[in-house]
Design a protein that fits this description.
Layout: E1 2-3, H1 9-21, H2 29-43, E2 44-46, E3 51-52, E4 54-64, H3 70-79, E5 91-100, E6 116-118, H4 122-127, H5 129-137, H6 143-151, E7 155-157, E8 160-162, E9 176-181, H7 193-197, E10 204-213, E11 216-224, H8 230-234, H9 237-247
Parallel strand pairs: 1-2
Antiparallel strand pairs: 2-3, 4-5, 4-11, 5-6, 7-8, 9-10, 10-11
């Protein structure tokens, strides 16, 4: 067990090694993602160690629409806006695994809003703006992501907008990174304030992600009931590389578990 309040460099090294090993013997990316979210949800505590630190942990990966399983294709189609175009190569941010306090949060098929969202959809900018910013950091551009950069706090250099350094922690890193919202309450980066943040006492949001292959990214998002310090958040960056190494232990085409 690790304390999210005192997570050390030595513990980061230990956890990084554990995550890399979670790809061993897996048949699909979904199986690995499920192992990872469960490891993070079960592995971190707060206070005296009797309470889990994270209320919810989710694992997303970007996939082409043509590679989605049939239920996810229907989910995306049903949420399209009138002026949206859906092509076989449309990239969708897809919920691959989830673990959390509520029973329905342990089954990705029970997510009402986040099962799959086209990356160029305004829904991504509205519902998962911190992930949209991460997409921009990794060079995945869309109008909706540009809107996030213009709408939310930004850092400018020479008149050119860049990703908010208060959320995406390393501006020069374009392959894996950490994103961090130290104060979740009333943050513009977490939209479900009344339905989620306030009733579940979410204090901070922490995530990490990276480039899995050309044009494909992954992101892990953790909602914490404890306030997380910035120096602790920075220690999650190596976990992105370990997660990538775990995922690469299965064939790229082996994504979803069979029914």
């Amino acid at each position: 067990m690790f304390s999210i309040e005192t997570f050390s460099l030595q513990e980061m090294t230990e956890l990084s090694s554990e995550l890399r090993k979670l790809g061993a013997g897996a048949r699909t990316q979904e199986e690995i993602a499920h192992r990872i979210v469960n490891s993070l949800y079960e592995g971190f505590t707060v206070g005296n160690g009797e309470e889990k630190a994270f209320v919810l942990v989710r694992f997303f990966v970007s996939l082409h629409y043509k590679d989605l399983e049939s239920p996810l294709k229907r989910f995306v189609e049903n949420r399209l806006r009138d002026n949206q175009e859906l092509r076989p190569d449309t990239r969708c941010l897809t919920l691959l695994a989830t673990s959390g306090q509520e029973e329905q949060w342990r089954d990705r098929t029970k997510s009402n809003d986040h099962r799959a969202i086209p990356i160029d959809s305004p829904n991504l900018a509205t519902e998962l703006p911190m992930v949209a910013l991460l997409c921009k950091q990794f060079g995945i551009e869309s109008d909706s992501i540009s809107d996030v950069v213009l709408t939310y706090p930004e850092r400018s250099s020479g008149g050119v907008s860049t990703v908010d350094s208060n959320v995406v922690m390393d501006q020069d890193q374009a392959t894996f990174n950490v994103f961090f919202v130290p104060e979740a309450l009333n943050s513009p980066y977490i939209y479900a304030q009344e339905e989620f943040v306030k009733p579940y006492g979410i204090k901070s949001l922490l995530g990490f992600g990276g480039i899995l292959s050309a044009g494909q990214i992954f992101a892990v998002i953790m909602f914490s009931r404890a306030s997380i310090k910035r120096e602790v958040a920075q220690r999650f960056k190596p976990l992105a590389l370990s997660t990538k190494n775990a995922l690469l232990q299965v064939s790229p085409g082996k994504i979803f578990d069979l029914p």
